[in-house]
Design a protein that fits this description.
Elements: H1 3-17, H2 28-37, H3 40-66, H4 72-92, H5 95-109, H6 112-123, H7 125-166
Helix pairs in contact: 2-6, 3-4, 6-7
Protein name: DUF2059 domain-containing protein
InterPro entries: DUF2059 (IPR018637)
Keywords: Signal
Length: about 180
């Protein structure tokens, strides 16, 4: 056997033994179909009301922790600032900005065959049921997580307040 024949045989064996090493990434059309089936854009847009509610809750907790109350003008300024922040995030994280990033991530992560298999699943009745029930699944998960985390957050808030009190950070109105 010549060196050339040996190299060809070794190369052929390598190619046959490791087909996944040379698998093609999914095409834009495949990833777009998968994102369409999984309602990726709808999921992104549905998160904004939840983020806004969390943002407001954080602001209210910060106010409550500070012991300060806002007059109508200050409240309006806070609301306007929160609205500006939310709109800035929505603009930066719009579907138009995220879609090409999602596509690239899918193409870096999955092979064409993987995406075809996911498309087949999400086109099935079971896949569509999963997609339809995912928002409910997420809400139930969030509620369960919040119930678990709430006592920890309350304890953390008490610890922070105690540390602030010990450091002399009591509200001047209480003096």
């Amino acid at each position: 056997m010549t060196l050339r024949t040996t190299l060809r045989t070794a190369l052929l064996a390598l190619l046959l033994a490791a087909p996944g090493a040379f698998a093609a990434p999914p095409s834009d059309a495949q990833v777009d179909r998968l994102m369409e089936l999984t309602r990726a854009r709808d999921t992104l847009e549905a998160m904004w009301p939840q983020l806004e509610a969390m943002q407001r809750q954080i602001a209210e907790q910060a106010l409550a922790g500070s012991g300060k109350t806002l007059d109508k003008g200050q409240r309006a300024e806070l609301d306007a600032m929160l609205e500006r922040q939310l709109r800035t995030m929505q603009s930066a994280m719009s579907w138009e900005h995220l879609e090409p990033i999602y596509r690239e991530i899918y193409q870096q992560t999955f092979e064409s065959e993987d995406v075809d298999a996911m498309i087949a699943f999400y086109e099935s009745e079971a896949g569509q049921k999963l997609i339809a029930k995912t928002p409910q699944l997420m809400q139930n998960t969030m509620r369960a997580t919040q119930r678990m985390i709430a006592p920890m957050l309350e304890e953390m808030q008490r610890d922070i307040q105690a540390a602030a009190d010990a450091a002399g950070g009591k509200d001047s109105a209480a003096d």
